[in-house]
Amino acid sequence: MATLTNNRSNRQASIIGYVILSLILSFSTNHINAQSSFDERYGCLNVVNTTVTKGTGEYGDNTFSMNYQHERFINEQWSIGGGIGYNYHHQYRLAIVPVFASSTFFCTNTRCAPFVNVRVGSYGVIRKDNIDTNTKYSTTLKNTDFNLLMSPSIGIKLHLSSHIGLMTSITNENILLKVYNNKQKAYTNEIISSLGINIGLFFQIKGW
Known about the structure:
Structural class: alpha+beta
Number of helices: 1
Strand order of the largest sheet: 1-2-3-4-5-6-7-8
Shape: elongated
């Protein structure tokens, strides 16, 4: 009799356990689906991010930058738009304002997804302090004919809710700049490169 009672209790506990587990899984699935991907009908992709990089190559320099991107969705995984920012090169003592076209492709339509972003544009110089000193990291008053900027990156995005989340990536920043060339003893156009980490917050606002 005691054995029969124990078996019934075990079956009841098992049934209750299955019900609770099913409810948890159902809730979790619905919750994840609610924030798994972008809804292009809700609004554009807005990203505010900060980047810290370390110089690479002969003319590279450590940088700090902040940017805002505004991109329209072509579909749930691909967006195109533009942005503006602030970028400071420490050794060159150079501050610029980049203006760029930007495109982001999310590799999967899931809550946590890898992505690729490319920015191409130009920049305006707002501050130059190390000018015409004829030393490494020296710039000159006359810059290149076109202030080219290019920055590819690869990273991961994570939805925190349906329309807000985090993005982090490895970023390669490049600008074309006229700098002092020690070998030629003259100012020449060179690519200033750096590699670093980008951390940002993305959000969608209906109608924006």
